[in-house]
Design goal:
Length: about 300
């Protein structure tokens, strides 16, 4: 699986590398996943040449989004294998949909370099519904010092802060595209993810109210750094609560998050952002030194049958 995925990543300039051990770790964390029914492998003469996996969730509009992650080794493209894997995953998703009362959609996230895959999906009736930007900051040598607005303070993260941090982030993101209210167990799962690195987080508290006002929760993906010989941090999970927006809080927290990544030995940083974000987040990130390097998108197709 790692060999197939890495061949696709390289050919389509996706910027990732996977190892077998990290694939094992990912699959061990999956919930509501049946390896007998939710993934299929395609072989030619006993050699794996592709696979596709399905997953599903309820989105912010109550739609049952049926996602898919799939790969066909570049050496086996243009032979109909991708179309056959797509046919299989759509049929599996129709079966899953029969057990739900919500409206259904097939959902695929694709990167800018997946030109062949996008063409196949469009022929199958998928249309782009949202665009996302990958933004990079090539150096952490010139991070500005940005003061916190008056009335806020950043505190080290302690275990008894975690629930307030999680709840404040979810509340701040309500109404954002693709963000659904948290489900039972989401908080506990969050604390087990590889992105859960509280020693790097920058969390601002509103002194008067004692509430979490804003946060930036960067992390370091050691797998990608080791396999690609780089020192990159990820400036992600950025939010500011509605009562405290438009005061410069996000900018100050991003600067602190960049300092934390540099102090941890990183030399660059990256983030992803919804291109249609209602708060014009991309412009804020540009003012913090990030530049757009890739444009990705989500395609969807109504589920039929």
């Amino acid at each position: 699986m790692a060999d197939v995925a890495n061949a696709v990543f390289a050919t389509d300039n996706m910027g990732w590398v996977r190892t077998p051990e990290h694939i094992r770790q990912d699959y061990a964390r999956f919930t509501d996943f049946d390896p007998v029914r939710d993934i299929i492998m395609a072989e030619v003469d006993g050699k794996l040449m592709g696979y596709v996996r399905t997953s599903h969730w309820i989105d912010e509009n109550g739609l049952l989004a049926q996602g898919q992650v799939g790969f066909v080794h570049p050496a086996f493209r243009r032979r109909g294998f991708g179309t056959e894997l797509l046919r299989w995953v759509e049929e599996r998703q129709r079966k899953v949909a029969r057990h739900h009362e919500a409206v259904f959609v097939h959902h695929v996230f694709v990167t800018e370099g997946e030109i062949s895959r996008v063409a196949m999906l469009r022929r199958a009736g998928y249309v782009s519904v949202r665009h996302f930007l990958l933004m990079e900051r090539e150096t952490l040598a010139d991070i500005p010092d940005v003061a916190l607005p008056e009335g806020f303070e950043v505190r080290p993260v302690h275990p008894d802060h975690l629930r307030a941090i999680f709840d404040a982030h979810m509340e701040a993101l309500q109404g954002h595209w693709g963000v659904a209210p948290p489900k039972l167990g989401d908080f506990e799962r969050w604390t087990t993810l590889p992105t859960f690195q509280p020693h790097l987080w920058q969390v601002a508290w509103h002194v008067e109210s004692g509430r979490v006002a804003g946060q930036v929760k960067p992390f370091i993906n050691e797998e990608q750094n080791l396999t690609q010989n780089r020192r990159r941090g990820e400036t992600e999970f950025i939010s500011v609560g509605a009562p405290w927006r438009r005061r410069g809080l996000a900018r100050a927290l991003i600067a602190k998050a960049l300092h934390a990544q540099r102090d941890a030995g990183m030399s660059e940083s990256v983030l992803g952002v919804d291109a249609d974000n209602a708060h014009d987040a991309a412009r804020l990130y540009e003012s913090c030194g990030f530049r757009v390097t890739r444009r990705n998108m989500v395609l969807r197709k109504p589920l039929v049958g």
